[in-house]
Design goal:
Length: 139
């Protein structure tokens, strides 16, 4: 007989989506993940939180969850906010555009990414970096 299934170890951070919170978040994620995905994980968490600041509102409470510390396995980054009605949209910014590249950067470095609506009315935008699964279809 086996015991209860344990969730994999993860980094959990609750914060307000403020520009000044991003450097500490990047540091914490960088210290947590495997060195092989550090740059990608830090870029993704920065862009996902920046999307909350820009499109949901500065000061919005967010929950960041990072799962995966096994070399060769994907690392999953999740950013949850309370605004289920504000969904991320992948734009293709022109050369003269000063913004609109954040999700394109996530799309470029992540194996997969997507959005899950939560039962409590919020949403989670997630991505996976690293691992053997490259070129996967994004959700």
């Amino acid at each position: 007989m086996s015991g209860p299934v344990q969730d994999p170890p993860c980094l959990r951070i609750d914060l307000l989506a403020l520009p000044k919170a991003v450097p500490e978040l990047r540091r914490a994620v960088g210290e947590y993940v495997d060195a092989g995905v550090r740059a990608e994980a830090q870029l993704c968490v920065t862009e996902l939180v920046a999307n909350v600041v820009r499109h949901v509102g500065e000061g919005t409470p967010v929950h960041v969850r990072v799962v995966g510390r096994t070399p060769g396995a994907p690392t999953r980054i999740e950013v949850t906010d309370p605004a289920a009605h504000v969904l991320p949209v992948l734009h293709h910014a022109g050369a003269e555009d000063e913004s609109g590249r954040g999700l394109s950067l996530v799309d470029a470095v992540a194996c997969r990414w997507g959005v899950e609506r939560g039962g409590a009315g919020g949403k989670t935008v997630w991505c996976e970096v690293g691992g053997a699964e490259t070129g996967a279809v994004r959700e």
